[in-house]
């Protein structure tokens, strides 16, 4: 059973988790193959209808038009109506994403195309498409077909929190995916997204704050704890990914659209990017895990992430080219934010965000604001109170102070402990504490 990402928008402090269970192939493949093939057929019908419209110079069909047109198809009737509709919705989602990429200058992007008819499509069951009772999910197909029963392992619907509270989840969406290895079906997986409701949080007044920078995450907390997490590996992966994209793009642009070489290159690009994305995700997961562990060890009640809105990204540099390169060579903020949120909730810590505005140019000790006190990227030297510290820790302490008392020139509220430094250890594939000198 694995953890996966949260789904969609949600109200504050509601915990959604997707858990995966592998399904025995010999039993489930015969049951699930027909609906999954039907899914591929519906997808291909969407593609076909759009192509016909284009060929005949007609208006493209809309989502609801296609849904009603397909209603009487045999493939539509081998799925639950919500599952069949979901395929059409996914097609239009892919079209929207294609248009967006095209608008952003990705000329090599192609509209969603036909899939091999033997491909087993991932099928989604929405609320009315399944039932859950006593550990068993019953997946519904169309009314005339038999349901598919999937018993889940014990405890699949429950979650034990650090204080001993056990939350029982309600399933809100189910997906069944085929896993391919070397073009052969290697397995089937059921992904159930559970709504565990609002998490009861730790009562307390301890707060921590994080400042995300180019290659460093700085942490400060009301216990006086200060940490620097060196994320150079993560950053270099991101830079490498951007370089890879640019290189592929350049090669692809020289080839004829639709040619064999062009197709092969696109495929190679997708494969390479998938690999890199996976490694990036592994590292962001490790970073956010460490963040939650440090918070839990200090009994933090609220964990605040410095919110670097577009404002700050722009304010960071005046040079236009530099701006562009900086924006893409940054830590994956959205990914870290999403993981920070659910990992904090799992430890019953309230996740929050707060603006980073001015925190990097204000002395956290005395409250004097002066950009030039940031001597260079890593050093803060306050000429007003004489404080010398790591500039990013000054930033994190600044966010913490702003979160607690707002912008003002009040002095530091509590004594600061000496900083701890964590860096990625390749041998162990995790972050380890090192001597502070290593951060320099
Ligand atoms: Zn100062």
TrEMBL record:
Domain Cas12f1-like TNB: 333-397
Gene3D superfamilies: 1.10.287.1490
Keyword line: Coiled coil, DNA-binding
One Pfam family cited in the UniProt record for this chain: Cas12f1-like_TNB
Highest taxon above the source species: Bacteria
Keyword DNA-binding tagged: yes
Annotated coiled-coil segments of the chain: 259-300
MF terms in GO: DNA binding
Protein name (record): Transposase
Native source species: Neomoorella thermoacetica
């Amino acid at each position: 059973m694995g953890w996966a990402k949260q789904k969609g928008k949600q109200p504050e402090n509601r915990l959604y988790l997707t858990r995966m269970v592998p399904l025995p192939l010999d039993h489930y493949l015969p049951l699930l193959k027909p609906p999954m093939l039907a899914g591929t057929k519906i997808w291909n019908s969407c593609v076909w209808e759009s192509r016909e419209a284009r060929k005949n110079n007609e208006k493209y069909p809309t989502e609801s038009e296609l849904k009603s047109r397909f209603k009487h198809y045999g493939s539509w009737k081998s799925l639950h109506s919500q599952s069949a509709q979901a395929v059409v919705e996914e097609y239009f989602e892919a079209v929207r994403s294609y248009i967006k990429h095209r608008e952003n200058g990705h000329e090599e992007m192609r509209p969603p195309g036909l899939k091999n008819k033997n491909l087993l499509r991932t099928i989604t069951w929405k609320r009315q498409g399944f039932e859950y009772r006593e550990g068993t999910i019953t997946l519904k197909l169309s009314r005339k077909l038999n349901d598919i029963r999937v018993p889940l392992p014990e405890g699949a619907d429950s979650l034990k929190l650090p204080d001993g509270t056990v939350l029982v989840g309600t399933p809100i969406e189910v997906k069944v995916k085929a896993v391919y290895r070397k073009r052969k079906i290697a397995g089937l997986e059921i992904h159930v997204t559970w709504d565990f409701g609002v998490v009861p949080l730790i009562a307390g007044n301890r707060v921590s704050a994080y400042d995300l920078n180019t290659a460093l995450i700085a942490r400060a907390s009301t216990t006086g704890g200060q940490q620097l997490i060196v994320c150079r590996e993560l950053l270099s992966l991101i830079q490498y990914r951007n370089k890879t994209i640019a290189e592929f793009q350049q090669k692809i642009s020289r080839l004829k659209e639709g040619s064999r070489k062009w197709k092969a290159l696109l495929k190679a690009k997708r494969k390479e990017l998938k690999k890199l994305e996976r490694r990036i995700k592994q590292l962001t997961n490790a970073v956010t895990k460490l963040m939650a562990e440090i918070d839990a060890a200090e009994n933090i009640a609220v964990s605040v992430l410095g919110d670097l809105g577009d404002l700050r990204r722009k304010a960071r540099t005046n040079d236009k080219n530099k701006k562009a390169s900086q924006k893409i060579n940054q830590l994956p903020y959205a990914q870290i934010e999403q993981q920070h949120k659910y990992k904090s909730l799992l430890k019953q810590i309230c996740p929050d965000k707060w603006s980073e505005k001015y925190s990097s140019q204000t002395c956290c000790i005395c409250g004097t604001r002066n950009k030039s006190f940031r001597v260079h990227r890593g050093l803060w030297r306050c000429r007003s109170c004489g404080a010398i510290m790591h500039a990013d820790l000054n930033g994190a302490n600044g966010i913490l102070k702003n979160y607690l008392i707002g912008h003002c020139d009040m002095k530091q509220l509590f004594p600061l402990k000496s900083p701890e430094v964590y860096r990625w250890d390749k041998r162990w594939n995790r972050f380890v504490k090192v001597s502070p000198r290593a951060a320099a």
